[in-house]
Specification:
Elements: H1 2-24, H2 28-50, H3 56-83, H4 85-106, H5 114-135, H6 146-174, H7 179-197, H8 206-232, H9 234-242, H10 244-255, H11 262-287
Helix pairs in contact: 1-8, 1-9, 1-10, 2-3, 2-7, 2-8, 3-4, 3-6, 3-7, 4-5, 4-6, 4-10, 4-11, 5-11, 8-9, 9-11
Organism: Streptococcus cuniculi
InterPro entries: EmrE-like, Sugar_transport
Main location: membrane
Length: about 290
């Protein structure tokens, strides 16, 4: 029970990042920079408490991973700008799950048992169906320049997914570092990546400082993800963390005023259900 309670924290923390940051405001580069500053502050506190052993390779790969992560987050913020949080977040999370699982299964051989392939393929099919319904739009609804805006959103999601997947593969499949040790080098890389997106024109404006709160939320989610995995196992921790997409969808609609027609609400409900079941099945696959 304690592990499940721990797993709820990253679900809420990570699921709230999109709508909280968009509620605070700012351009995608300002949102990303502010978030990384908060993550760096959190990482420094963790380092001062834990004092983990550091190495040159940990610093090098940690910084590279952080820069890849910042590319993923910047693209996600841009996609939210064009598509809305309630559409961009499930598409982003789903794309990471689908492509990440396929890369893990095909390239790194993470699926070896028939049951894993059966459940994994079923999960991926459900995620793809979830993609379709969460992004489906009502033809009767009046949109302004919809195709153009959605095109920009999908392009942003493309490099966002590439950044997130590269970061995940680097840390999960290639280099295996202690999460509490690598969090500081990674945070340094995150800030450096965000500075690149700002073209090194650094301005600590109020909206940047406020977005640091989102970085603290990200850090808290990370710590409780580790605690949940230790107490309840990786399958539970992973599955619950992916359910944060529900929080982001509800937050986008309730707090950011993203409107949905009756048809779109029905499609969104179907998409969420498919997404949740798919994510849980992938968690089960990881437990084998």
């Amino acid at each position: 029970m304690q592990g499940i309670l721990y797993a709820l924290i990253p679900m809420v923390a990570w699921g709230s990042i999109g709508f909280v940051s968009n509620k605070i405001g700012g351009k995608p580069n300002q949102q990303t920079f502010g978030m990384t500053l908060g993550a760096l502050l959190f990482a420094l506190v963790v380092w001062l408490i834990v004092r983990p052993e550091m190495s040159v390779s940990l610093w090098g790969f940690g910084i590279i991973g952080g820069m890849l992560w910042s590319m993923g987050q910047y693209g996600q913020f841009r996609s939210m700008q064009y598509m809305g949080v309630s559409v961009a977040n499930p598409l982003s999370s789903g794309a990471q799950l689908v492509f990440g699982s396929l890369i893990g299964a095909i390239i790194f051989g993470e699926w070896s048992k028939p049951t894993q392939f059966l459940l994994g393929i079923l999960a991926l099919l459900l995620l793809v169906i979830g993609f379709y319904f969460t992004s489906k739009q009502d033809d009767e609804k009046s949109y302004t320049n919809t195709n153009h805006e959605f095109g920009k959103g999908f392009r942003a999601l493309t490099y966002s997914t590439a950044g997130y997947l590269s970061y995940a593969i680097l840390f999960n499949n290639i280099m295996h570092f202690d999460a509490l040790a690598v969090i500081l080098p990674m945070a340094v890389g995150m800030v450096l990546g965000a500075m690149i997106f700002m073209k090194f024109k650094i301005q600590l404006e109020a909206v940047v400082i406020k977005n640091a709160l989102v970085g603290l939320m990200w850090g808290i989610g990370n710590i409780f993800m580790l605690l949940a995995a230790a107490k309840a196992g990786l399958a539970i921790a992973f599955s619950f963390s992916q359910l944060g997409v529900i929080i982001s969808i509800i937050g986008g609609i309730l707090f950011l005023g993203e409107t949905k027609t009756r048809k779109e609400m029905r499609w969104l409900t179907i998409g969420i259900a498919c997404f949740v079941i798919g994510a849980v099945l992938l968690g089960v696959v990881k437990s084998y």
